[in-house]
Amino acid sequence: MSEAALPPRCGFAALIGAPNAGKSTLLNQLVGAKVSIVSRKVQTTRALVRGIALDGPAQIVFVDTPGIFAPRRRLDRAMVTSAWGGAGDADVVCLLIDARKGVDEEVEAILDKLPQVKAPKILVLNKIDTIEHEKLLSLAADLNARLPFADTFMISALKGHGVAKFREKLAGYMPEGPWLYPEDQISAAPLRALAAEITREKLFERLHDELPYQSTVETTSWKDQKDGSARVEQTIFVTRDGQKKIVIGEGGRTIKAIGQAARKEIIEAAEQNVHLFLFVKVRENWGDDPERYREMGLDFPKH
């Protein structure tokens, strides 16, 4: 049967793992475009970012969950609940492990809870170019002895090694049924949310030592102009005046650099020219505001 004659398939694949296992980098490789924020700071994916990939007759909707870690603050608890919720709703769950780190406390906690997830589970060992071959095989054997993984893949998300084979295998796990999204759509996240994520990434890249996780970005206005361009306004929220000064920088240099870097990628994502205006506001207790959680697609933990 030719590929065109094969019935369409569509389903959800959840990527779970400890912070900085490489989930966002892998998602961007699988989809072939930037749909998830990638940062050296851990815990930067806050909501379920959905990337969409095509492989033959299959449409795979990826749920990129926040890194699973020991939650301390209310925002942490919301992120971890969101991650396990995304895994529970998927057709296949992919556990991504940084092969160089191996099984640490965070991976242990995930392995303990993973048997509760009913979907087939795939083990994905990432960053394989950073570890000796024998150690890699030993790690794969140990993990498969602990849990009945349906498949094991060894990849380098950063370099793309093994990613195409992995995507092809995932396509086979998708149930038969019509595609949920148009063929040319790569993300189910609205453009405004994706633009805010891009700016937040640039903010962390520039200020990863000085700025805490409490900072967030919202796209407050997106207006299409007559000339085909868009005027986009975004607000960066921080929790203290001192942080506001850091974001703005001397003579406004820092916020200008953040805006220029973000604008470039937002133009690519939007496929139109964008005029980006950034504002910084202090909002002391935004981490306890239910409305902020709704905007990020997270449930507000009651305690």
Report the sheet with the most strands, covering strand number, pairing sense and barrel closure: 6 strands, mixed
**What do we call the CATH homologous superfamily of the largest domain?**
P-loop containing nucleotide triphosphate hydrolases
Helix content: 25-40%
Q: What class, by secondary structure content?
A: alpha/beta
Tell me the number of structural domains: 2
Instruction: Give the overall silhouette.
Output: globular
Quaternary assembly: single chain
Question: Can you identify the CATH class of the largest domain?
Answer: Alpha Beta
- CATH topology-level name of the largest domain: Rossmann fold
Number of helices: 9
What average pLDDT do the residues reach? 77
Rounded Rg: 20 Å
Compressed to H and E, one letter per element, the order equals EHEEHEHEHEHHEEHHEH
CATH architecture descriptor of the largest domain: 3-Layer(aba) Sandwich
Strands ordered across the widest β-sheet: 2-3-1-4-5-6
As residue ranges, the low-confidence spans are 36-47, 67-84
Beta-strand residue fraction: 15-25%
For the secondary structure, the number of strands is 9
| N/C terminus separation | 55 Å
